[in-house]
């Protein structure tokens, strides 16, 4: 009886998996476009109010030392700016304060949080934070 229950459970799971895998999400790929070298891309964050996408570039997974934030115009799908991260190494997580135009960049290589002005790309400040990966911002 026990082996029969296990067999029925296994069959139910095997039949259910394809049903879940084939559900439509409503999402589809709109476009692909080049943004630079193949390696070292990590986190991204969107500024929907200004139509920009910010992507960290230059992580430990490649040999490049780009240490930059690439800014993409989401309407034209073009790279519009490349901001150098002066103090940080190996940028990972990104978070944006849309009110002040500040971008917070977690840098795992030298364990800093770098604050950047999204209009100018100026590195405003950096703070030691220890090991990091993702970054979040919440206005309180």
Automatic annotation (TrEMBL):
Keyword Cell inner membrane: no
InterPro entries attached to this UniProt entry: N2O_reductase_N, WD40/YVTN_repeat-like_dom_sf
Annotated keywords: Signal
Signal peptide region: 1-21
Protein name: YncE family protein
Species per Swiss-Prot/TrEMBL record: Hufsiella ginkgonis
């Amino acid at each position: 009886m026990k082996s029969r229950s296990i067999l029925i459970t296994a069959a139910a799971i095997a039949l259910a998996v394809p049903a879940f895998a084939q559900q439509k999400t409503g999402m589809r790929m709109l476009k692909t476009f080049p943004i630079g070298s193949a390696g070292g891309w990590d986190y991204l964050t969107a500024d929907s109010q200004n139509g920009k996408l910010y992507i960290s570039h230059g992580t430990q997974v490649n040999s490049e030392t780009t240490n930059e934030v690439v800014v993409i115009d989401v309407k034209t799908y073009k790279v519009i700016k490349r901001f150098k991260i002066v103090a940080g190494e190996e940028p990972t997580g990104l978070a944006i304060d849309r009110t002040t135009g500040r971008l917070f960049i977690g840098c795992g290589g030298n364990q800093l949080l770098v604050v950047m002005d999204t209009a100018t790309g100026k590195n405003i400040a950096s703070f030691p934070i220890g090991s990091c990966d993702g970054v979040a911002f919440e206005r309180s």
